[in-house]
Amino acid sequence: MARVALVTGGSRGIGEAISKALKAAGYDVAATYAGNDEAAAAFTSETGIKTYKWNVADYDESKAGIEKVEAEIGPIDVVVANAGITRDAPFHKMTPEQWHQVIDTNLTGVFNTVHPVWPGMRDRKFGRVIVISSINGQKGQFAQVNYAATKAGDLGIVKSLAQEGARAGITANAICPGYIGTDMVMAVPEKVRDSIIAQIPAGRLGEPEEIARCVVFLASDDSGFINGSTISANGAQFFV
Ligand code: CAA
């Protein structure tokens, strides 16, 4: 039987590429989205991948959504916590609302996504937890005190989960994408974006598929001894 994979924020951007790559690798995939019904419907009709709408920042919604996915598709073997937002502002202008929105979605959202699937993974003695962090969690970023805090927090989550899950056959790893050609990066003012690209030795933005291939590897049986790690995929922009 095919393994089941859940990808949050899985109908657009990096998440879309991850959902498609996991499907191509033979997984039964469920993708979540937060608000864009039209994009989700187009994604399902193009790929045949089922989409589910819930807010990852809400624990009860996440838990109920995950129960629905498991009832309709099967127990979740691979969870990819990818959903994330930016609310960029220089710190002196950042509002408590911008802080909380990003913390609730990017950091608490990872807890809300992984916590409901964790007991089943422990019972079945297999699981793959993959969290999409960011280069900006590793190096910090002007105007991203909130976002960088969440993405650094993701690394603490996987290192802790790795230790708790190892004996139960569960691995937890993070991927830190650099700047990838998605709507999120395209929303950065063009002048700033050009200066960012100038700092990438590869001379280009990454492609969502380049992150998706890392996910497929971390989800596979081949990666069983890789646990608590971070894969940086950033075109040589930053080394830890
Ligand atoms: N480094 C240094 N200076 C920067 C900067 C950066 N990355 N980004 C902006 N600035 C500077 C601007 O040049 C400007 O300087 P001057 O006043 O001297 O012209 C100043 O900061 C902007 O000040 P403002 O008070 O006018 O700023 P604002 O309130 O209008 O906010 C901004 C503008 C939100 C900071 C905008 O410039 C921006 O979005 N910057 C990019 C932030 C960024 O890189 N975000 C990453 C998004 S992609 C992502 O997050 C995905 C991932 O994981 C990699």
Automatic annotation (TrEMBL):
EC number: 1.1.1.36
Classification via CDD domains: BKR_SDR_c
Gene3D superfamilies given in the database record: NAD(P)-binding Rossmann-like Domain
Entry's Gene Ontology molecular function annotations: acetoacetyl-CoA reductase activity
A Pfam family recorded for this sequence: adh_short_C2
Taxonomic superkingdom: Bacteria
Keywords annotated in UniProt: Oxidoreductase
Membership in a protein family: Belongs to the short-chain dehydrogenases/reductases (SDR) family.
Name of this chain's protein: Acetoacetyl-CoA reductase
